[in-house]
Amino acid sequence: MTRAKPFTEQTVLITGASRGIGAAIAERFAMVGMNVVIHYRESHEAANEVARSCMKHGAKVLTVSADIRSREQINKMKEKLEQRGTVPDIIVNNAGIAHYGLLSDVSEEDWDLIMDINLKGAFLCTQAFMTPMIQQKYGRIINVSSIWGISGASCEVVYSTAKGGMNAFTKALAKELAPSGVTVNAVAPGAVSTEMMAGFQAEEKAALENEIPAGRFALPDEIASLVYFLALPESGYITGQIISPNGGWLT
């Protein structure tokens, strides 16, 4: 028997929520007055700015800092939330970094950094917060992946590998947690208009847009809307899915 609270009284934890897609996700949940936990690593003022935007919607907001590569720091973050009586019903594993370059130029340190932030961080955060969801027989785990985790991308081998691992993590964990009423899904966007695209030249961006049938990049709000949908109670039969909002780029 589920002991879940009404949806608008639930708590959502979004990692990497100080900017881009993460910030848009935080504000989308805040629009219905939910309890929103904004995680960041170093961007303190940016996280506070997102928090202020969320509070304008009447949401209860908490900002927390942690390096998600560290189990110790994640446990400290968990303790801080517990001290405030905050237990996430929804986890959005959004934190991630991009990497561009030939595989022949990738150092072992580069590999470890990309894997630790994009994949290990999702594992550690999920493991830290999943037990209360299992106990209440209700929860949502939503991983923000990438189109490249599905198709792979030249000169983004390490990033593609990390996101491919996240997709496999999603599918396997969904089977493990389905009997407990916890869904696990991934949203794998195509090109999104965020700071992650800052490394591309104007000509490169134009060439990418020409490849996309929709003729444009996605807006962060569009990705946030899909994440929000997957978190709804009525989305409880959707689990183990990798959903790619990509404007028809990959079908």
From TrEMBL:
SUPFAM superfamilies: NAD(P)-binding Rossmann-fold domains. GO terms for molecular function: oxidoreductase activity. InterPro entries: KR_dom, NAD(P)-bd_dom_sf, Sc_DH/Rdtase_CS, SDR, SDR_fam. The keyword Acyltransferase does not apply. Residues 10-190 form the Ketoreductase domain. One of its GO terms (biological process) is monocarboxylic acid metabolic process. It comes from the Bacteria. Keywords: Oxidoreductase. Pfam families: adh_short_C2. The keyword Oxidoreductase applies. Belongs to the short-chain dehydrogenases/reductases (SDR) family. This is 3-oxoacyl-ACP reductase FabG. The lineage of its organism: Bacteria, Bacillati, Bacillota, Bacilli, Bacillales. The gene is fabG.
